[in-house]
Amino acid sequence: MTNSEIAKILNEMAVLYEMEGVLFKPRAYEKAALGVESLAQEVKEIYKEGGEKALLEIPGVGKGIAFHIKQLLEKGNFDEYEKLKKKIPVNISELTAVEGVGPRMVKTLWQKLRIRNLADLEKAAKAGKIRKLEHFGDKSEQKILKGIEFLKKSGGRAVLGFILPEIRTLEKMIQSFPEVEKAVVAGSVRRSKETIGDIDILVTSSKPEIVMERFLGLLFIAHVYAHGKTKTAVKLKNGLDADLRVVPKESFGAALNYFTGSKDHNVALRQIAIKKGWKLNEYGLFRSADSRGQDADSRGNGLRGSAEILVAGKTEEELYKALGLSYIEPEMRENTGEIEAALRHAQGKLVIHARSDLGRARVGPLLPDLIKYGDLKGDMQVQTDWTDGENSIEEMAKAAMEAGLQYIVITDHTRSLAMTGGSDEKKLLKQMAYIDKLNSKQIPNSKFKILKGAEVNIGKNGELDIKDEVLAKLDVVGAAVHSHFNLSRQEQTKRIIRAMENTNVDIIFHLTGRLINKREPIELDIDEIIAAAKRTGTILEVNAYPNRADIKDEYIRKCVRAGVKMSIDSDAHSIQHFKMLEFGIAQARRGWAERKDIINGWSLEKMLKFLK
Ligand code: DGT
Ligand code: CA
Ligand code: CA
Ligand code: ZN
Prior knowledge:
binds calcium ion; binds zinc ion
């Protein structure tokens, strides 16, 4: 049983207990699921090495759950799970994937309408059966139908950040095969896209058949589509497809480049090769032996039938160089201008935007010096157990410090998010005094600073739910939309601009409010928003939480061009979440952002000076 399978069952247990109205247990199982999901090592291995005791080391796993995990590993289930599943035999993950459908609703839907899965739910909603239930209504029925529609559209792509730990485990296992020289996951995973369609694994080995046999022996695998000498295609138990390809050593760079993509990037590179009279494919960059390869007209016949000479193929670096380009980071390979920029870069052409007699010079930007993984000095959005976070301020600060940060901003929710226990002015002032005390006692240590902030709620008309004189006392004010997602584009834009115009608001958190695979972004005039951010000096957040990834790469590029600064925040609700920052950095890199564009890539002093 893989970690994601175990986590899935633990999450199911949380929902089942929630349905039964059991207290505390749902949170405990959720926490344990989170702990299992974020492990770098397989639970199975941990158990094999250290027994039940070692399972207790997994974050969030106590005695009871450790015993259940043990039973899962040994016999694939445990009594409570079996019992509850028998009582409520529904596809929980399928139903709760629909926005607005929670555990209690799943139970009602089962008891009143015998709804087991998505298909049942859709049928009942379309037949108007849901609006007739007590506590439901037209509105919830419409919302369910909309949620189902959205799920169908997202077409089974997985959110990369949620599944990456498991992909890395798989990658490490393949790397550990004795016959494997190199093993790398390419494709959209390597380009760090928000979501991925499948997993493309590339291996070099002189014994491909043995590698394939070992691969097929992995417990990750649920089904084999095709099994060949150099290519095998499977379905993994987590539902994703994976392709494994073995390539010769001399071709590794070319193959890595080809299978990293994107397809559009590949096509554009191949065009450059063709213009030189060369040929580019997954085996390398070639010229024909009897042509110098300079003359475009000599391709075609010239190449066919004659011996080909490998120009480059072993590494990606030599491949780009041979094509006359500077190296392009995987996150930028989408053919959205990076190839032209790499060409200019290699040729050392300057950026000229000035008008000349010939009109606007057609020279664009060079390649950016992308922000690096590890460049962040702070985190501007952190929740604690003062509201809906799981850990105390002290615990969050310590975890952030251990993650390599020098400062965090505590940004608990505010009063209009009542279900989170959001702060009012009084509670906020109390928290501020408490943070002052922690800092004066140098907790967690003298080099670390805890800043006072809040995630203030933006109301329907852009009004905030905390008084200005209290906001003015905070170090950092973030404001965010958490309701009224369906206003018109014009109303939404106006609402957010009004919040930005408040001189206390430093950052807009998760601007569009989207939840990938779950909720559409609010409608906005992004150009107007960016212009207002520039005018008011407001920062836009790149939220690192994997299914938010808000703002998206295209908007980040617009911000970079407009000179609007951004922050990259984990939106942590637990000490586990600081590792999500990696995905925010990936997002920023896909948006061509440099360290100069990201305020928490700066020192504390410089960052504070920049705020309104
Ligand atoms: P995904 O899986 O939908 O998240 O996206 P990718 O980019 O991983 O796409 P995938 O798995 O279909 O193919 C992996 C890479 O292989 C892709 O990024 C580029 C390369 N590739 C696939 N099909 C073609 C093609 O028809 N032409 C070229 N030039 N490259 C291709
Ligand atoms: Ca892929
Ligand atoms: Ca693929
Ligand atoms: Zn929020």
